[in-house]
Specification:
mainly alpha, 3 strands, 6 helices, 3-stranded mixed beta sheet, globular, single chain
């Protein structure tokens, strides 16, 4: 499963994976997602922010729900892990449209 968007990157970074530009996309096991889901659900937004203010700022009030949704989707798909990407869905759609119009991928 390829996960796009900030939640996938946020979780990978919180879990200690290298998400820096140029690094290979991390493969985040579903067990890590489950652990972080439980951990974040047990925290107040202020406590979540304190984990890593650089990562959590502006997301501290929704991170637990977002990670829970990610875990639920992975579970429903029977996925063992997800790979995160720096691009987003809109980015991928734009590249696909460009390729359909004769541009390079």
């Amino acid at each position: 499963v390829v996960a796009t968007g900030s939640v996938a990157r946020l979780l990978a970074r919180l879990a200690g994976f290298d998400t820096s530009p140029g690094a290979p996309p991390p493969r985040v096991p579903v067990g890590v997602v489950a652990e972080w889901s439980e951990r974040l659900l047990a925290l107040t937004p202020a406590e979540a922010l304190a984990i890593d203010p650089a990562v959590m700022a502006g997301r501290e009030d929704v991170a637990a729900a977002a990670v829970l949704v990610l875990h639920t989707v992975l579970d429903a798909l029977g996925a063992s892990a997800y790979i995160t990407t720096r691009g987003s869905l809109r980015h991928g759609l734009a590249l696909a449209a460009y390729a359909r119009l004769g541009g390079a991928s």
